[in-house]
Amino acid sequence: MSASIRNSVILTHWGLTDNEVRCDLSTDIRMYGCWGRNARLWKDNHLPCFVPGKDTVVASTAGDYDNSVAPFGYQVSLLVCILIYTLFLPRGKVTWDKQYTLFFAGGVRYDDVSYSHGVRQTLMMLFSQHPGFKLIDTGERGGYTQYMADFGRSTFCLAATGAGWGVRLKLALMHGCIPVIIADNVQMPFEDVLPYQDFAVHVREHALYRLPEVLDAILSTEGLVKRMQINVSCIWRYFTWRDPQARAIDALICSLRRKMTGGRLIPVMDWSTCNLHCDE
Q1: In the chain, what are the domains?
Q2: 7 contact partners, CB below 8 Å, separation of at least 6
Q3: Are 257 and 278 spatial neighbours (Cβ–Cβ below 8 Å)?
Q4: Percentage of the chain surpassing pLDDT 90?
């Protein structure tokens, strides 16, 4: 990528903001988000992988697939969709009484200190046996067949950093689960225009040990979980591209419009209608 192209607005899935720290390490470069050519671009030209305020982190297209488990975003044939909608599970209906407080399943790699910046390893060591938490090391089990279903069975779902951008944030939202984001110095998709504080939980890496305390505080605040769940049932549309209700393109256009105003435009989400108002 030439420097002249890099001066354009880049649409990326990976909103890493601390490139100087994580792209210039002598350890496995791939685990720090710059991936191959971008890593060399940084080291050779001092060009970052993502520039906050200029570039836009967009929702992944991963997860826009046929999924008979997710209550939102069916991508099946029209006939099957009509049958599901009419006979079994109307769109937008989810079970809000959950079996687990927190769910995560994914690779942990205890022998690789660079992977996930130590987040997944720390979480597993601290909370793998914590009551109400279901944390699965898929590397140990060689896969996990209940992966999708357990998103829908959980109140909170971890969207913890791994080797780079991931799809768990999107999967949590599409299954009616409140995402718990643990990814320091990483901007989330459309974070510049969507009110993350209304539908997600951010936990800093240095505060991982306080995770149960953070979740308990939310659970004990009257009406807060229900309000966030209702917002989740609205906001998932802004993270998908293919569904008939998809609004990711609306979020993208809003982000670009905000950049054209130098950040002066402040978008407002109308939760009663699920509409993102993006006017000055």
Answers
A1: 3-57 (no CATH), 90-235 (3.40.50.2000)
A2: none
A3: yes
A4: 54
Kindly list the distances between the CA atom of residue 71 and the CA atoms of 75, 86, 113, 242, in Å, as whole numbers in the listed order: 11, 14, 36, 15
What's the predicted TM-score (pTM) here? 0.84
CA 82 to CA 148: how far, in whole Å? 22
* Helix (H), strand (E), coil (C) string for the chain: CCHHHHCCCCEECCEECCHHHHCCCCCCHHHHCCCCHHHHHHHHHCCCCCCCCCCEECCCCCCCCCCCCCCCCCCCCHHHHHHHHHHHCCCCCCCCCCCEEEEEEECCCCCCCCHHHHHHHHHHHHHCCCCCEEEEEHHHHCCCCCHHHHHHCEEEEEEECCCCCCCHHHHHHHCCCEEEEECCCEECCCCCCCCHHHCCEECCHHHHHHHHHHHHHHHHCCCHHHHHHHHHHHHHHHHCCCCCCCCHHHHHHHHHHHHHCCCCCCCEEECCCCEEECCC
What single-letter amino acid sits at 235? I
One-letter amino acid for residue 66 of the chain: D
Is the pLDDT confidence value at 78 over 80?
no
- Check: CB of residue 133 under 8 Å from CB of residue 101: yes
pLDDT tens string 199-217: 999 999 999 999 999 999 9
